[in-house]
Design a protein that fits this description.
This protein is an alpha/beta fold and about 375 residues long. The chain contains eleven helices and 20 strands. Bound molecules: pyridoxal-5'-phosphate (PLP). Keywords: Isomerase, Pyridoxal phosphate.
Length: about 375
């Protein structure tokens, strides 16, 4: 099979030791009876789902969370045998496959349970399908909103001859990464009201993403769904500081593919939006918005030879230009995320420039950027 990006010096480097260190820091801080499930959706937030899952497991993760069924199947195919929870809604037509592969799914309606019951029976499935009931306490995304609906679903799950294993119950906070905890408290109260409708709680009761565990540790149930922080990224951006050092695992580097002197008055890239103010050394970097390096990054910078170099002219689909302090050879390393000398560029810096969050930049890094692992 041809691996697109294999013959390419523009690379995402992932430090698996940093991932393990972040997980160990969280393992040391949380209640020892609380499990850590590593959230590896969206190709491990761009870092590589399988490699991250294996590193997380080595560091002590005892389960995994993903967004869609295919991500769970990829983990099973790679030999992961721990519990895997699909956090989004999976279409009930896949119920037999979910049961067969021993995967757990989030369920937010009675209708889902009824449809899946019919499909499982029609396919003579006898292995129980693991269900985590999703409660909507204020995220407004998926889940049961009222104690009555929830109690009915629990009754269905607890029936004799049920095709389900009532394995978990959970919610998700919308503002756990903010200093103001008014809305968080409102959601927490809703959670308490809802779970009071469940006579016997299932094995896994969980509410915490990274932010909740970092800043509201007291409400962790017996599982933490540890996501962005395991990659060394602060879920709050700059707003709150983490209780331990987070080590960013990802760096992004390229090599200059072309270097030239551009005469004063000549312009660069689409729209000719940049014109050289004097004779300038210009380098071409073989990365562009098709790689997830956003077009809005014109005017931002990269590092070459430990020096900050401005991105001049529009970022193209596959290439962009930077202004160099002096002539440097073709093949010189360009750091787009990471450290060179005493300068560092973080995913947070890029996100700030783009007016978004580091999550979006990390998981936007395209598959054609090869991932290289160091441990
Ligand atoms: C993505 C996700 C997480 C992980 O969130 P982080 O902020 O990355 O820790 C946890 N729970 C749910 C339901 C999610 O969708």
């Amino acid at each position: 099979m041809v691996v697109i990006g294999e013959h390419r010096h523009t690379q995402v480097k992932v430090d698996l030791q940093a991932i393990k260190n972040n997980i160990k820091a969280e393992m040391d801080r949380k209640d020892p009876l609380t499990e850590l499930w590593a959230v590896v959706k969206a190709n491990g937030y761009g870092h590589g789902i399988i490699q991250v899952a294996q590193a997380a497991k080595q560091a002590g993760a005892t389960g995994f969370c993903v967004a869609i069924l295919d991500e769970a199947l990829a983990l099973r195919a790679a030999g992961i045998t721990e519990p895997i929870l699909v956090l989004g809604i999976t279409e009930p037509e896949y119920a037999p496959l979910i049961a067969e592969k021993d995967i757990s799914v989030a369920v937010g309606t009675q209708d889902w349970l009824d449809t899946a019951t019919t499909i499982l029976a029609a396919n003579d499935v006898t292995t129980p399908l693991h269900v985590h009931l999703a409660l909507d306490t204020g995220m407004g995304r998926i889940g049961f909103q009222t104690p009555t609906e929830l109690a009915a679903a629990v009754t269905t799950l607890n029936q004799t001859n049920t095709p389900f294993d009532f394995e978990g119950i959970f919610t998700h906070f919308a503002t756990a990464d903010q200093a103001d905890d008014t809305y968080f408290t409102h959601q927490l109260n809703n959670w308490k009201t809802l779970i009071a409708a469940v006579d016997e709680l299932p094995r896994y009761v969980h509410v915490s993403n990274s932010a909740t565990s970092l800043w509201h540790q007291a409400c962790n149930g017996n599982v933490v769904r540890f996501g962005v922080a395991l990659y060394g990224l602060n879920p709050s951006g700059q707003e709150l500081s983490a209780p331990y050092d987070l080590q960013p695992a990802l760096s992004l580097t390229a090599q200059l593919s072309f270097v030239k002197k551009l005469a004063k008055g000549k312009s660069i890239s689409y729209g000719a939006t940049y014109t050289a103010a004097e004779d300038e050394w210009i380098g071409t970097v073989p990365i562009g918005y098709a790689d997830g390096y956003e077009r809005r990054l014109q005017g931002f910078h990269v590092l070459v030879d430990g020096q900050v170099c401005e991105i001049v002219g529009r970022v193209c689909m596959d290439q962009m230009m930077v202004r160099l302090p002096h002539e440097v050879p073709v093949g010189t390393q360009v750091t787009l995320v990471g450290t060179d000398g005493d300068q560092t560029i973080t995913l947070q810096d890029i996100a700030d420039y783009c007016g978004t969050i580091h999550y979006e930049i990390a998981c936007g890094l395209a598959p054609r950027l090869p991932r290289v692992y160091v441990d």
